[in-house]
Design the sequence.
């Protein structure tokens, strides 16, 4: 994998985790997400 693509994936992963962590438990629940699932979901996003 080229370094630019790897960096973009890493950045997207971190942004996804950061944004989901901003949500409260109620908002996550409305989306069907458990706080423990955030990292898995972020990995799937990239």
Sequence:
């Amino acid at each position: 994998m080229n370094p630019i693509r790897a960096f973009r994936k890493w950045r997207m992963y971190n942004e996804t985790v950061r944004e989901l962590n901003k949500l409260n438990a109620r908002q996550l629940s409305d989306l069907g997400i458990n706080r423990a699932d955030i990292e898995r979901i972020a990995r799937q996003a990239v």
